[in-house]
Amino acid sequence: MNAPVSTSSRGGAWLLEPTEGAGAFTPEQFSEEQRLIAQTADEFVQQEVLPVLELMEQKDWKIARSLVQRAGELGLLGVDVPEAYGGVGLDKVTSIIVSERVAACASFAATFGGQANLTVLPIFLFGTEAQKQKYLPKLLSGELVGAYALSEPGSGSDALGAKAKAVRQPDGSFVLSGEKMWITNGGFADLFIVFAKVDGEQFSCFIVERAFKGVSNGKEEHKMGLLGSSTTPLILQDVKVPAENLLGEVGKGHKVAFNVLNFGRFKLGAMCSGGARVAIGEAAKYAAQRKQFGQPIANFGAIKHKLAEMTIRQYAIESLVYRTGGLIDATLAATPHEATDGSPVLAAVEEFAVEASIAKVAGSEMLDYVLDENVQIHGGNGFVADYPAERHYRDARVNRIFEGTNEINRMLIPGMLVRRALKGDLPLVAAARQLQAEILEPSAPAVAGGDGRPLADERRTLAACKKVGLMALGLAMQRYGQSLTDQQEVLMYVSDILMDVYSAESAVLRALDSQARKIGTADLQTDAARVFVSDAAARVESNARCALAAMAEGDTLRTQLAALRRLLKVVPVDTVTLRRRIAEAVTAKGGYIFG
Ligand SMILES: Cc1cc2nc3c(=O)[nH]c(=O)nc-3n(C[C@H](O)[C@H](O)[C@H](O)COP(=O)(O)OP(=O)(O)OC[C@H]3O[C@@H](n4cnc5c(N)ncnc54)[C@H](O)[C@@H]3O)c2cc1C
Question: What is the 3-state secondary structure (H, E, C) of 330-391?
C-alpha cells in the first residue's frame, strides 16, 4: 500500500489550514495491487455484468444473485472486511476503487452497494463476534444477499421518525411489525438490516432473516432508472427476532444508521466518479465519429467546451474522493488496532463525515451535469434507448435523493463543522474572529502573492476562497447563534462555498503532485485545476454575496461586500484556450484522460 501523503488528519481542517504544505493521495499514486484490483473490477463489469444488464432490467434476480456471488469470488465484496471473516481486508482507497469501477453499471452498483456497504458494513462495524462469524463469510461469498431497511412510507429524511415497532418479549426476543419502503435488493435478499423502535420509543437495529416467519416483500417499484436493481417495500408482520439478532444496543440504532450513511456517502461519491468516466468516454467517441456540416462535431467549440467541462468537473471530484480516502487511510494507519476491530474504522470515517457529505453532494451533481451533456452531445440519439446515454441519465438521478438527500447533506456540511467548532475539535471560532478583525480593516491587503511554483495564482485564489468561506460561516454563527439550523437558505450558500473550496483545493493538490512526479498528463491536469479554480472563485463570490445580503444591511453590508471584493480580486484565466486543449486530448484518447 502507498503511504498516503497528507499533513492534516482532522476532518474540516482544510478550511483553516494553508494549501501550501498540504499533501493529498491521488490516483497517480495507486500501488500495483490497487491497479490490479481496478482492472479486475473493470473486466468483471465489462465482460460479465453489462452483457446481462437487459435480463436484470427484466427483473431476472437469479442473474443479479449470481453476479453478487461472482463479485464475492473475485474478492470485490470484502475489501472493507478482514480475512478472519472471509474478507480481503484492504485499505479505503482500494474500497473506493472498487466502488468507482463497479459503477460502470449503475443498476448492478446499487445491488452491490446494498450488499457490500449497507449490509456487510453494519454487521462488521456493530456486530457481536457471533454475528460476524455467522453472517459475514456467507455475505462476502455472495451465498447470502443482504438489504438495508431504514426508510418507511412516512419517514425518509426524518429517519428517526420510523414507525416500525419492536416489542420486547419475556424471553428477551423481539416481535417486529411495520412497513419499510424503497429497499434495494428487497425482491431477493435473504437478510435485512432493519430499524425499528423498541417499545415504540428506542430506535434500534436488528438483523432479520427472510426465513423468519412474517417477513415478505411488496411489489417491485416502477422506477425512473436503475431498472436492473430490485427496489421493494419490506413487510414485517409480527416477526419474532431472537435477542442475539439485535445489532448494537437498544436505543442506539441511530449510531448504526448514521455511520453507515457516512460510509455510504463517501462511496457514493466514488460511484459518481466512475459513472462520469464512462460517460466522458461515450461522449468523446460519439463526438469524434458523428459528422455534421462535413466535419466531426468534436471540432466545434461548443462541443469542445462540453467535453472539457465534463472532464474538469470529474477531475475535481475524483481528486477529492481519493484525497478523502487517503486521509481516512492515514488516520487508520496512525491508530494501531487489530484488523478485526471495527471501532477505529468507525472513528476515522466519522472524522471525515463533512468530506463524505461533500463527496456525495458534489459528486452526484457533477454526474448529473456530465450525463446531461452526454445526452446533448448525442443529439437525438441521446434521447433514445439505442445508446446508453439515455439510460445513464435516468439511472443517475436517484444519487441526489438517496444516502441522505442533497438538501439534508447541504445542511450537514456547515452544521457538522459548527458542531466540531463548538466541541473544541476545530479552532473555527477563533479563526473566524481573527479573520473578521483582519478583513474589516479598510486597509487590509488582498491575500499575499505567489511563490513562483506552479499554480501560484490558483493557490492564492484558494486562500482567498477559504477566507470567504470562513467569513460567511463565522458571520452566520454570530448572527443566528442557536437558531442557525433554521436558516437553511444561508446554510446552502455556505455549503456551496465549502464544497467549491474542498473540490478546488483537491484538484490543485493533485495537479501539483502530478507535476512533482512528472506524470504525463501533469500539464493537462494543471489546465483542469486552473479552469476549476477560476470558475469556482466566481461561484464563491456569488454565493457569498447572497449569504451576506441575507445577514446584514446598510453600512455593515457595504463594508462586508467591500472586504469580499478585496479578497476575491481574481483575474479570470483564459478558460477557452485551456478547455480546448483538454477537449482535444479527450477526443484524441476517446475518453477520460486522467486517473
Ligand atoms: C431507488 C431507491 C433506492 C433506495 N434504497 C434504499 C434502501 O436500500 N434502504 C433504505 O432504507 N432506503 C432506500 N431508499 C430511500 C431513500 O433513502 C429515501 O428516498 C431518501 O432518504 C429520501 O426520503 P423520502 O423519499 O422520504 O423524501 P423526503 O424525506 O420526504 O424528502 C422530500 C424532499 O424534501 C426535502 N426535505 C426533507 N426534509 C427536509 C429538511 N429537514 N430540510 C430541507 N429539506 C428537506 C428533501 O431533501 C426532498 O427534496 C431508496 C430510494 C430510492 C428511490
Answer: HHHHCCCCCCCCCHHHHHHHHHCHHHHHHHHHHHHHHHHHHHHHHHHHCHHHHCCCCCHHHH
